[in-house]
Design a protein that fits this description.
alpha/beta, Rossmann fold, Arc Repressor Mutant, subunit A, 3-stranded antiparallel β-sheet, 18 helices, about 50% helix
Length: about 400
């Protein structure tokens, strides 16, 4: 077993909350292995100095063996597989744990890594814009890997929408790699770990529980891995603002989706924009362009046009009967394109956006769904059918 990996694993367990101290020791003595050979005393840190011992190395070796048994791995600073962007931060962890079906190179090096974060208490507005932004990234010429924190709300939407559109995603955890928090996201975590180019990542040792302080350290890893951070919704004291601040410290690009002045869930984003800490997001396509992913607007327009023509061809001649007879094709196209432009939209929102009667919207949506143009989930949110 690699002695430097064991020593780095041990230092990560000892100095995880103070990685700069561990890095100083490695830089001073040349390697993590040499730190344990010399076992220096650290002024003001006697309790930590006592842990630089053989017992800590033995514990780290047992942990690395356990990781192998559960199909995970530990990547230490200095290893060729360690994420380059993270290594360039002032306070990178001495090592990270990874669970996934792809190699570290496929996870960290093949695509741009972009972070999307936000509140757990996401609003319908935040949900819709999160999906639109991920969809625009999936339609770009250069497609990224989406980084987020596996939490409820915006994080979960970013991860699941990425997988839906075929984008890889990285879930940065506030626990050990052997557990998932929240427990309700075990299935999502499993999907991430099994999706090509995706992975679960943490710098916490096996068996670490999700205590509050851990999420601060988790946010640092999100900002360090990604080239940019986009905040969808956040309160003024939300964890996403902390991620944005770390991103600023690491010289990453920061973007924020603006919201209503009286919505506490947008107050954090609005304050980031006001303080010039984040650039305002005015459209998903513009964000994609600013990230250097090169939007493929022509392709989206072609898909939209084909979708529209298919609806008109299906209902233009014979009509649909019922309440929408006579104006069937026009109404069907209007409802279909509203959903195309606003994935995840509800029936009431379609009626408001199109000025069609609610009853007409319901009938059109029902017919379009039966014919495969639309799909509706249990919460009555509409999206374009899978074949489109």
């Amino acid at each position: 077993m690699n002695k430097e990996a064991i020593a780095c694993c041990a230092l990560n367990r000892i100095f995880g909350y103070n990685p700069v101290l561990a890095l100083d020791l490695i830089n001073t003595y040349g390697s993590a292995e040499e730190v344990f050979r010399i076992a220096p005393r650290i002024p003001g840190h006697d309790n930590l100095s006592d842990q630089i011992c053989q017992e800590s190395l033995d514990k780290a070796a047992r942990e690395l063996e356990s990781l192998q048994r559960i199909g995970c791995r530990f990547i230490h600073l200095g290893d060729d597989d360690y994420p380059t962007a993270l290594s360039q931060c002032d306070d990178p962890p001495v090592g990270i744990y990874l669970r996934g079906s792809s190699s570290p190179a496929e996870v960290f090096s093949l695509r741009p890594l972009v972070a999307i974060v936000g509140t757990r208490d996401v609003s319908p507005y935040g949900s819709v814009w999160c999906k639109k932004i991920v969809a625009a990234m999936a339609d770009a010429t250069v497609t990224p890997c989406i980084v987020s924190g596996l939490a409820f709300g915006v994080d979960a939407i970013a991860h699941s929408t990425a997988l839906e559109y075929g984008l890889p995603t990285i879930g940065v955890m506030a626990t050990g790699i052997d557990s998932v928090y929240p427990a309700r996201h075990r299935e999502l975590a499993s999907r991430i770990a099994g999706f090509p180019g995706s992975a679960l990542v943490t710098d916490y040792p096996l068996g670490t529980d999700p205590v509050a302080l851990n999420f601060v350290r988790r946010n640092r890893i999100i900002a360090g891995l990604a080239s940019s951070v986009t905040v969808i919704e956040s309160r003024k004291k939300g964890g996403s603002l902390m991620t944005a601040r770390y991103a600023c410290d690491y010289n990453r690009d920061v973007f924020a989706v603006p919201g209503r002045l009286d919505d506490v869930r947008s107050s954090g984003c609005n304050s980031l924009i006001s303080a010039h800490m984040a650039e305002i997001v005015t459209s998903p396509e513009e964000l994609v362009e600013k990230l250097g992913l090169m939007p493929r607007a022509r392709r989206k327009l072609d898909r939209r046009s084909a979708f529209s023509k298919a609806i008109l061809a299906r209902y233009g001649a014979a009509g649909t009967g019922g309440a929408v007879a006579g104006t069937g094709a026009a109404a069907m196209e209007t409802v279909g394109l509203c959903v195309f432009d606003n994935p995840g939209v509800g029936f009431a929102e379609i009626a408001a956006l199109t000025s069609l009667p609610y009853a007409t919207v319901l009938e059109c949506a029902g017919i379009l769904e039966a014919d495969g143009f639309l799909a509706t989930d249990l919460l009555q949110r509409c999206s374009v059918g899978a074949r489109w």
